[in-house]
Design a protein that fits this description.
This protein is elongated. α1 packs antiparallel against α10. The N terminus is likely disordered. It has 418 residues and is mostly helical. It has 21 helices and no strands.
């Protein structure tokens, strides 16, 4: 039974990430980036949300789903997508609130039934979950038994019905597996694969079948798959400001023995730092170093702790010691860029404008394909403090061409005329 529980942890987390199988009855082409969502129609936001959800980009999917829902709060599929994004973030109470709304609008809607099944499953109410998975199966089978099926059905409807049937079988298979009834579990998993080739949880169903054939090998493969997918998710959650989810994700990666434990410890520390828990963050960075004494990101992170507390001389010492170990360049603004930026401003705030200018210049040339406004603005302020107003003004002008509303550059530009 312990091995079954391990499989449930490793495999079904990914399966439940694909809850909204019925949503996918539509074709989507939008990338789903979070940008000016108010300029899009509710349907465009929905389609972009589905696309992001299918790529496991849950923060983006959530923003788009929330936008569609706010624009049309009574549209069932918009409520459903928003609910799936909440389930993925383990916000069961909020997802339950949306389920209540769906029940009030249409209790027989297949995704109302589906959402109820998986919410009960996640809340470990397995008896109710089983009843709802069976209800899903009955809904799909009632359509498939009709004489006109599939000939007189639209292809998209046939696809939708297949996904619902596959989802029901998957859920029933997982419940059978939890009971230790491997034979029944296998039958349901095979039904799921036969019901739909487009079911979002299909790869996880295959993983469950592989586990039944060879538990140890399949468990290892599932763990590797889950860890690889989860790494991007937790960092995206952090970048989206979803700190509680990111923190839980980093902790989960450690609990299921994902590779690179030092990165998960660092991730926890970065979240705690963002929350202002400086001592906790610093301890986590030291723990990351204990796992891997050569982990430069953890060493650099101590500088971020000092900088965040305005201990600029300490930050200078910590960052300077790691300068030779930073990446020689970066494609995007990443941790090396942050280190250089913080070091330059630390020099600035200690009135060492010459060294500040040197580091800002290094940062300005740190990205081969992209020019950022931040280092140019820093160069402008350093020049301004050294009474080189014309030079400063040029830097601010360059920065404002890149980011016209950059407040720090605007402020410096105005000051250069005084």
């Amino acid at each position: 039974m312990a091995r079954v529980r391990t499989l449930m942890t490793v495999v079904t987390l990914a399966t439940m990430a694909g809850l909204g199988v019925g949503i996918g009855g539509c074709q989507t082409t939008e990338s789903g980036e979070v940008a000016a969502i108010s300029n899009f129609s509710a349907e465009s936001n929905f389609e972009a949300g589905v696309s992001a959800f299918e790529k496991n980009d849950i923060p983006n999917a959530h923003v788009r789903a929330a936008a569609a829902y706010s624009q049309s709060p009574k549209t069932k599929k918009y409520i459903a997508l928003l609910a799936w994004t909440l389930l993925k973030q383990n916000k069961l109470s909020e997802a339950g609130g949306l389920l209540k709304e769906m029940n009030e609008i249409d209790p027989g809607y297949p995704e109302t039934i589906q959402l109820a099944a998986w919410l009960a499953y996640m809340e470990k109410d397995f008896a109710f979950a089983e009843s709802k998975f069976k209800e899903e199966a009955v809904w799909a089978d009632n359509h498939r038994r009709r004489p006109e099926y599939p000939r007189r059905y639209r292809a998209s409807d046939v696809n939708f019905i297949g996904k619902i049937r596959a989802d029901a079988a998957n859920g029933l298979g997982l419940l059978a597996l939890a009971r230790g009834d491997n034979q029944t579990a296998r039958r349901f998993f095979e039904e799921s694969l036969n019901a739909s080739a487009d079911y979002l949880g299909r790869s996880d169903v295959k993983a469950a079948l592989a586990w039944l054939d060879n538990p140890q090998a399949a468990q290892t493969a599932a763990l590797e798959q889950n860890c690889a997918a989860g790494r991007d998710v937790v960092w995206k959650n952090f970048q989206a400001g979803l700190y509680s989810q990111a923190l839980a994700g980093f902790k989960e990666r450690i609990s299921i023995n994902c590779p690179q434990k030092e990165e998960s410890l660092l991730g926890q520390g970065v979240v705690e730092l963002a929350l202002g828990h400086y001592d906790v963050a610093d301890k986590l960075f030291y723990q990351a170093e204990a796992v891997n004494p050569n982990y430069v990101r953890a060493k650099v992170a101590h500088g971020a702790v000092a900088y965040s507390q305005k201990k600029y001389k300490e930050a200078i010492n910590l960052y300077s010691a790691q300068l030779p170990n930073l990446p020689p360049s970066e494609e995007a603004w990443e941790w090396g860029s942050n280190a250089l930026n913080n070091l330059a401003w630390s020099y600035y705030f200690t009135k060492d404008y010459k060294n500040a200018a040197v580091i800002f210049e290094k940062l300005a040339g740190y990205h081969e394909r992209t020019t950022f406004a931040a280092p140019l603005t820093g160069q402008g302020w350093a020049a301004l403090r050294m009474d080189r107003k014309d030079e400063a003004r040029e830097y601010f002008e360059k920065a404002l061409k890149i980011t016209p509303n950059y407040g720090l550059a605007k402020q410096g530009f105005m000051e250069s005329f005084r």
